[in-house]
Write a structure and sequence with these properties.
The strands form seven sheets. Strands 6-12-13-11-10-7-9-8 form an eight-stranded mixed beta sheet, with helices on both faces. Strands 18-15-19-20-21 form a five-stranded parallel beta sheet, sandwiched between helices. Helix 12 (392-398) crosses helix 20. The longest helix is centred in the N-terminal third of the chain and has 31 residues, at 100-130. Mean pLDDT is 82; it is low at 1-53, 85-103 and 248-255. The chain has four domains: 1-144 and 153-178 and 189-206, no CATH class; 236-557, Thiamin diphosphate (ThDP)-binding fold, Pyr/PP domains (Rossmann fold), CATH 3.40.50.970; 644-818, 3-Layer(aba) Sandwich (Rossmann fold), CATH 3.40.50; 839-971, 3-Layer(aba) Sandwich (Rossmann fold), CATH 3.40.50.11610. The chain is an alpha/beta fold and 978 residues long. It is found in: Mitochondrion matrix.
């Protein structure tokens, strides 16, 4: 008896288990017994057995039925019988045969069989991993979709490559056992090598290229294999719409879809399949190419409303070009007979900027509907190939896809791969082989498909919709197509891509090719096809005639978030009255007590947090509040009224400056947390506070989209430092500041930007208030006249701010840093009591206000510098000579209140003091408005830091010297005298 020593178990990646052991001086390698094989690399054989007894057991099983053992054992025993001396085969025991030359020869044969099977399994895996590199994806047939002409060496494209696997031409007709990791056999478990290669090429190297083997989930990989390997797996309106636009408006830019007409049936297939799976709301984002076609033929916008947009004499309407606009529409899905709501979000020419906005809007709809798994609401994002590869916001958005507070439970991405970016060849536009490689970062499967093969496209779209419904993860469809005309219809592409466009000019339209195929197959007749074309042409002509009667564009047609209970049908607020914001004492006390306690029993908090909570409790007892407690009370009072509050950003749960602590962490139990604000009231709205990824562009866009969905919610994004908002400048400039003017896009997002000069350097000081003020639309040379409440009317007319009002505007708050713990930066509960409201301007209430006629100087300021001015005034004993007035609302400028203060202190000179440099901060904004208030009859002097290139110094000594200098100037009564 001798002991077997297992050297290997099962093959990696699956397949039949095999044994490899050493015994009697020989190396054994064979397929395991079907009933007693190894299940892992370390499993021993069932017992200590002799060579002959184990083989005898296998031999007896073979004698009962040759199919009881693997083909390798079958071959082994057949060879033994054929080679053995006469009569020995009749002994029905192989023991006598396991000797000398016969044994050695038989083992060699068996090992060769096993090695050939392993080679075929490796070949199958090679096609699964790299088959997409040789797929026929380019409809023009001139480029490689992956920017590389090489053919992977491990793919069998010629007979001579069989040698790489130890095989030759004679093996092509040999049958091989198929591994469990492929479905190419269907119901068959063995196939000839020639047929294996043919089926692999059909699955992975035809008009569909599949990238998925990087996914680290076996079940997901198997799911995809089944969809593309199973044997046998594998439109008129779009084209005519583009032809009609080209005929009627030949000199207009429309960014048509020619060359990728298949996008429309592709989207319809995704929507139909998703609708059948239960989806009833789809939020979409896309660049300008094909937008008009999507609006017309997917969302079903009225054609006359689209056509009237081409009329240069249109009297009113949106402030943007037609191919940037959005839409919201509810209709019946004819495939499922279910209602479905389709929303296309407006997008600027910053192509991928809309990506996180769509995700935020989708997340919000899921949140408010309680759709935690994304079974009712989903998103579809369309991209261009150059933008998908080149713009960082794509990567930022992908990284939100599985974060708990940001996931939308899977997005279907459709890349319209023109194989060109404006005039730039992809070979100099990206370093990655495919434009879609960024999606691999989240293990999203990528389906490349030749856009001139409609049936392949439709199949891929159905699989993508099933993937999203099954796994709730992102998936990418890469429609490899071309752009029949230039970047727009006025552009000449032959300047830069002459060879490509020579081929494009020869390229038959996909409609023509596919219609001829269907007619040839007898699916439709030529007459039926021509009738469909004529029918759609008639629809377009009738809409064109009707569009000439449209003198004004209806705003409702371009809303992607209509807010029906908030606005009238004309887009006006249903009320213009300002609601009171003060609170009862018991409400203030209750919120304050929760803010300074831990509502969960047995919860272990950090000693430092305990001290902070005790400090809050002391403030509540004294009816005082600092910034953190004031924020707590503001949020809590909204939650009481059923208003959802969502605060997002880097480190917002604790707060960058360790002041907030809205999420408490148990110091003993991992992942156990407490959010006290969700324990305020029994039937309160929910409070969402969530740390974000280290992203500004993507997260600000996401929160903007979230705020679009519901006007009765407070959505806030806080920067770690206010300076960092500049990496989200595209969202701020293109959506937040101008969204209402361009797209009638109402939004109440709040940006919290920590701001203040403390000698901490240029990247931790300034939120760049001058940029926001520059984008404010109020006129510095005109004091507006309103018949109603001045403050409410002024807010309604401006482009950003928000308080508790019957309309929504974005709000920019320059939040404090050092003032979070400043002993003088406090308010009493009386400031928030019933009957109180936000103060746009805080007048001086000290001795100077008692004798305004004696005041020599009035200093207007905003923010932290007030406390430094107040301290300096007290030290110099100038309380009666100098008044200090704070502007709490910088924009829109409080003309009415400033006029009252200027008139009150009629004999005083006027100063604007700021800690920011002269070319930054508020000065350039407030100066012309002050001069308008005084009708240019007296100057307003500047006090502050000198102009500079950087927002702040990083040297503490320099910082203090600058502060000392402008403090001296502010209170030197002769500094501005002639």
């Amino acid at each position: 008896m001798s002991q077997f020593r297992v050297l290997a178990g099962v093959l990696k990646g699956g397949g039949s288990p095999f044994l490899r052991w050493r015994a009697g001086g020989l190396t054994w390698r064979c397929w395991a017994h079907p009933k007693r094989g190894c299940s892992s690399r370390t499993d021993p054989l069932p017992a200590v057995v002799s060579n002959s007894s184990y083989v005898e057991e296998m031999y007896l099983a073979w004698l009962d039925d040759h199919k009881n053992v693997h083909e390798s054992w079958d071959s082994f025993f057949r060879n033994i019988q054929a080679s053995g001396p006469s009569g020995e085969a009749d002994e029905r025991r192989p023991s006598a045969l396991l000797q000398g030359r016969v044994l050695s020869h038989s083992l060699d044969v068996a090992e060769k069989v096993v090695e050939d099977h392993l080679a075929v399994h490796t070949l199958i895996r090679a096609y699964q991993i790299r088959g997409h590199h040789v797929a026929q994806l380019d409809p023009l047939g001139i480029l490689d979709a992956d920017l590389d002409s090489f053919v992977p060496s491990d793919l069998i494209t010629t007979i001579d490559k069989l040698g790489l696997y130890g095989l030759d031409e004679s093996d092509l007709d040999r049958s091989f056992q198929l591994p469990h990791t492929t479905f190419i056999g269907g119901q068959e478990t063995t196939l000839p090598l020639r047929e294996i290669i043919r089926r692999l090429e059909a699955s992975y190297c035809s008009h569909i290229g599949v990238e998925f083997m990087f996914i680290n989930n076996v079940n997901q990989c198997q799911w995809i294999r089944q969809k593309f390997e199973t044997p046998g797996i594998i439109s008129v309106i779009v084209s005519r719409f583009e032809d009609f636009l080209a005929r009627k408006w030949s000199s207009e830019k429309r960014f048509g879809l020619e060359g990728c007409e298949v996008l429309i049936p592709a989207l319809k297939t995704i929507i139909d399949k998703s609708s059948a799976a239960g989806i009833d709301s789809v939020i979409m984002g896309m660049p300008h190419r094909g937008r008009l076609n999507v609006l017309a033929n997917v969302i079903r916008k009225d054609l006359d409303q689209i056509f009237c947009q081409f009329d240069p004499k249109l009297e009113a309407g949106s402030g943007d070009v037609k191919y940037h606009l959005g839409m919201y529409h509810e209709r019946i899905n004819r495939e499922t007979d279910k209602n479905i709501t389709l929303s296309l979000v407006a997008n600027p020419s910053h192509l991928e900027a809309v990506d996180p906005v769509v995700q935020g809007k989708t997340k919000a709809e899921q949140f408010y509907r309680g759709d935690t798994q994304g079974k009712k609401v989903m998103s579809i994002l369309m991209h261009g190939d150059a933008a998908f590869a080149g713009q960082g916001v794509v990567y930022e958005t992908f990284h939100l896809s599985e974060l708990p507070s940001y996931t939308t439970n899977g997005t279907i991405h459709v890349v319209v791969n023109n194989q060109i970016g404006f005039t730039t060849d992809p070979r100099v536009a990206r370093s990655s082989p495919y434009p879609t490689d960024v999606a691999r970062v989240v293990n999203a499967p990528i389906f490349h498909v030749n856009a001139d093969d409609p049936e392949a496209v439709m199949y891929v779209c159905r699989v993508a919709a099933e993937w999203r419904a099954t796994f709730n993860k992102d998936v990418v469809i890469d429609l490899v197509c071309y752009r029949r005309f230039g970047h727009n219809e006025m552009d000449e592409p032959m300047f830069t891509q002459p060879l490509m466009y020579k081929q494009i000019h020869r390229q038959e339209h996909v409609l023509k090719k596919y219609s001829e195929k269907l007619i040839a197959e007898g699916v439709v007749t030529l007459q039926e096809f021509e009738e469909e074309v004529a029918k759609y042409d008639k629809i377009c002509e009738e809409a064109y005639t009707s569009s000439k009667d449209e003198k004004i564009l209806h705003i409702r047609h371009w809303l992607d978030s209509p807010w029906p209970d908030f606005f009238t049908a004309q887009g006006e607020p249903k009320s213009m009255s300002c609601l009171p914001t003060g609170l009862d004492e018991e409400v203030l006390q209750h919120i304050g007590q929760i803010a300074s306690s831990v509502p969960l029993e047995g919860f272990n908090i950090h000693p430092g947090v305990s001290r902070i909570l005790r400090g809050r409790a002391d403030l509540v007892k004294s009816r005082q509040m600092d910034w953190a407690l004031g924020e707590y009370i503001a949020f809590g009072s909204l939650l009481k009224d059923g208003i959802h509050v969502r605060l997002s950003g880097q480190d917002v749960e604790r707060g960058t400056f360790s002041h907030r602590h809205h999420v408490l962490h148990d110091q003993e139990v991992d992942k156990r947390i407490c959010v006290p604000m969700n324990h305020l009231w029994e039937n309160q709205a929910s409070y969402t506070v969530c740390n974000s990824s280290l992203s500004e562009y993507g997260v600000v866009g996401f929160e903007l989209g979230f705020a679009m969905a519901n006007p009765n919610a407070l959505i806030l994004w806080e920067a770690q430092f206010g300076d960092f908002h500049n990496t989200a400048q595209c969202i701020i400039d293109q959506f937040i500041s101008s969204g209402q003017a361009k797209w009638v896009r109402n939004n109440g997002i709040v940006l919290l930007l920590p701001h203040g000069m403390e000698g901490m350097g240029p990247e931790h000081s300034s939120a760049r208030p001058e940029r926001f003020l520059q984008m404010t639309k109020d006129d510095p040379d005109h004091i507006p006249e309103f018949t109603g409440d001045f403050d409410v009317q002024q807010l309604y007319e401006c482009n950003w701010i928000v308080i508790l009002l019957p309309f929504r505007k974005p709000l920019i708050i320059f939040t404090p840093k050092s003032l979070l713990r400043h002993p003088d930066a406090r308010s009493g509960f009386d400031d928030l009591a019933k009957g109180t409201k936000f103060k746009r301007l805080i007048p001086d209430e000290g001795p100077a206000s008692q004798s305004p006629g004696q005041v020599k100087r009035v200093i207007f300021c905003a923010g932290k510098v007030y406390y430094e001015l107040a301290k300096e005034r007290k030290q110099q004993n100038l309380d009666r000579d100098v008044a200090i007035i704070r502007l709490e609302q910088i924009s829109p400028f409080p003309f009415d209140l400033v006029s009252e203060e200027v008139e009150k202190y009629g004999n005083a000179e006027l100063i604007w003091c700021q800690e920011e440099h002269k070319n930054m901060g508020y000065y350039d904004y407030v100066r012309p408005r002050f001069l308008t208030v005084v009708a240019n009859k007296k100057p307003i002097w500047y006090v502050g830091r000198d102009p500079a290139a950087a927002p702040a110094t990083g040297n503490k000594s320099t910082h203090l010297n600058e502060l000392r200098k402008f403090m001296d100037t502010a209170f030197n009564m002769s500094s501005f005298q002639d």
